[in-house]
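In response to a reviewer's request, we include the raw inputs and outputs for one of the modeled complexes. The two entities were modeled together in a single run.
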Amino acid sequence: MNLLLASAIAVLIGSGAYLVLRARLFTVLLGLMLVGYGVNLFLLAMGRVRVEVPPIITDAGGPYADPLPQALVLTAIVIGFGMTAFLLALAVRSRSVFGSDHVDGLTDATDSASASDSTSASAVPVSPQALS
Amino acid sequence: MIVMNLVAGLLSSLAPTPLHQALARDLLVLPVLLPLAAAGLSLMTSSIRWRRALMLGTTLLLVALSGWLLPMADLGDVLVYRLGNWPVPVAIVLSVDRLAALLLLLTAIVATGSAWAALGGDDQHGPHFHAAFLLLIAGVNGAFLTGDLFNLFVSFELLLIASYGLLVFGGTPSRVRSGVQYVVLNLVGSSIFLVGIGILYSVTGTLNLAELSQRVALLDAPSAAFVRSGALLLLVVFALKAALVPFSFWLPAAYSAASPPVAALFAILTKVGVYAIVRMSTMVVGTDAAHSANVYGDWLWPMAVATVAFGALAAIGTRSVRRLQSALLIISVGTMLATMALGSEAGLSAGLFYLVHSTIAAAAMFLIAALSEQREAPRQWTGILFFVGALSVAGLPPLAGFLGKVLMLQAFPADRRLPVMWTLVLGSSLLAVIALSRRGAALFWGAAEASETSALPRAREQRLLPRAPLSRMPPTALLLVLAALTVGAGALSDYTQRTAQQLLAPGQLRSQILDTPGGR
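The model returned the following structure tokens for the whole complex.
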């Protein structure tokens, strides 16, 4: 059980980190979601995994699962959901502004776009950083 | 004479009494609740006048409220509010000691100046500027007030999501691009924050900062290793907020792209990171934390030194006055954290003194920087503002920034850190002065060079977004606050010294929070 949980967390966070390091916003977003899932599982595991025990301390005593990490995970899920939704909206906006979903706002055909933009003064190609 | 008596009477009636303290304890939740409620209200009305009144009214109320809380906290007892009236380790506590009270007041002052500046029209480039503004303040105040690690996370998220909205407000290309990077970085930061919290909880079984520090001190060496790794993960997150190298490269792009009032307000955001670092390093992994004592000190010093160096190079290398101010903000954060990393009373006190000054100076300077880029405005008054603002951010006499730097230099004992710090502070000040005078000369004397700074993107942005006229009054008012701070520098440095004493006796803080009477 513990091995399964640990490897699930590792796979989620590992693949999430890989995707976050991509240059496209869509994959970055997917990566952030995977990292979020991994972190939520990790939080849950930090309260020690108990199977088939209630998160309630009864008068009779007996084993109970720690309810606090579950509450934390719930909060973290809600917050993560909101943040992901915001980033998604921002990514759509970024795509409509730059015409691509590159994280640096680079366009797919950077060279041709910048050449047509800088026709006014000189024909020297302007670097995308200077343009936008 | 009558007026004098009236003022004296009014002041004495506001002086802290036990009754007032009891009242203050009940009102502690207001610095979070007020802006939250006002944000909700401002979403309900569509009248810009009401929204503006709500925003400015709330910030002014917060100035009054935190001005009233400050002398109360200065009596030395921690004011504790238990959410839901549960007994202490169960309840999430809000607590105000001297440090939190000082930062609450600082937030309120900066927010007022920034809200005032936003009335110029920067709040009209889209819907709901005011709500996001108020939510940001609620988050910042929550972070300063809370005595619970997970609640700190929630406050961080609240202020972050509001800051995302404010940063990209207006939706120009540069704002969207820097906004995307800022959001992605901070989302990763939030994940790391949660991992850190999880590790600390798994070893100690609590999230209340006071109880956490109590249990950390009792751990054996193997478990303390987990505490150290958890605490260092949190340091990464806080350093990201405070813009410490190697986590500071996002700041110049973000702060220079944001609209001027927003950039001024963001000057307080880096201080949330600084606050969290100070709180963790004195309370949880402080000197009395047994196996996990002083975890932060070893890391903080090199990071802060690198931050000052990075900021100084960025300052000298930029041609935009707003990027220059962002670089100066990075320098100031690095300098204060290098001093606070000493962990001594003098170091903490000097760092806090400089924190107050540099935050207000940075907020004023972000506004002045935007003012000085406006061609149509009368130049003379703006030029004087730029000069005074430059003196204060560079830390030259006669303003209090100079005193802050002297205090910080004096705080260093004669060991191998001393020459490094002197070189850094003096070198970064020199580079800041050179950069500021270059920018100032170009802006006010040589229009030709100034106009070429970033003409191309500016033109493109302006087509999308008319530049709102800025009033010269808000930065003037902030500079007047700085002048008042200079006059009252003695009182402020006494206060920061008492704050440092309180921070360095975490046992007392801890027991005052944990022994709070009441509950079910």
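As requested, we also summarize the result in words. Chain B touches chain A at residues 150, 154, 157, 160-161, 164-165, 168, 171, 173-174, 176-177, 179-181, 183-184, 187-188, 190-191, 194-195, 197-199, 201-202, 207, 456-457, 460 (CB under 8 Å). Chain B has a mean pLDDT of 85.
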